[in-house]
Amino acid sequence: MWVTTNHQGLARELLHSFKFEQNRAAADSIYRLMLETYLNSGKTRPDYLIMPVPTATSRVRERGFDHSALLAKKISMSLRLEYLSILGRLGQTRQVGSKRSDRLSQMADNFWVKSPQLVAGRQILLIDDVVTTGATINVASKALRQAGASRVDALIFAKRL
């Protein structure tokens, strides 16, 4: 998992502006910083399938867009890699403010792959904005591996401390 920064200060403000004020300039800054993190890792893969971690439907309706999908699309276009959004999210429980144990139980078996044949044997790069405990990424990765993905990595903008 690659994480660009900590979820504090300017990074936190940038995320808030992107997600809650629909600031497209903030989105551009976030995706470019994430892209730089990935490219500087020295572990790039030319055959990654780029995939967003699904956002709760209620949040997409509330905001009017899926922030993770937007970041994933921008990253896939910049890297000229295939983008697919075929990871489904069953539960809509909000994770913000939950303890690690609660997050893990809330997320258990919460994701499914809509078209397993499209991920079989593929290397997946999951894209998300924030990671706290890693529960969401772990459960999403598990679903993708069970569907036949050969490798699952994640690129995250910020880690909550």
Compact description:
The protein has 161 residues and is of the alpha/beta class. The protein contains six helices and six strands. Strand 5, helix 6 and strand 6 form a beta-alpha-beta unit.
List keywords for this structure.
four-stranded parallel sheet; two-stranded antiparallel ribbon; Rossmann fold; single chain; alpha/beta
Name the CATH architecture. 3-Layer(aba) Sandwich
Shape: globular
Number of domains: 1
Low-confidence stretches: none
Number of helices: 6
Q: Into which percentage range does the β-strand content fall?
A: 15-25%
Termini separation comes to 16 Å
CATH names the topology as: Rossmann fold
The strand line-up of the biggest sheet is 1-6-5-2
- Helix-strand makeup class: alpha/beta
Your description of this structure?
This protein has 161 residues and is an alpha/beta fold. The protein has a single domain (2-159), classed as Rossmann fold. Helix content is 43%, strand content 21%. The protein is built from six helices and six strands. The strands form two sheets. Strands 1-6-5-2 form a four-stranded parallel beta sheet. The protein has a two-stranded antiparallel sheet with strand order 3-4. Helix 1 (9-21) crosses helix 2 (24-40) and helix 2 (24-40) crosses helix 4 (67-79). It starts with a strand and ends with a strand. The mean pLDDT is 88.
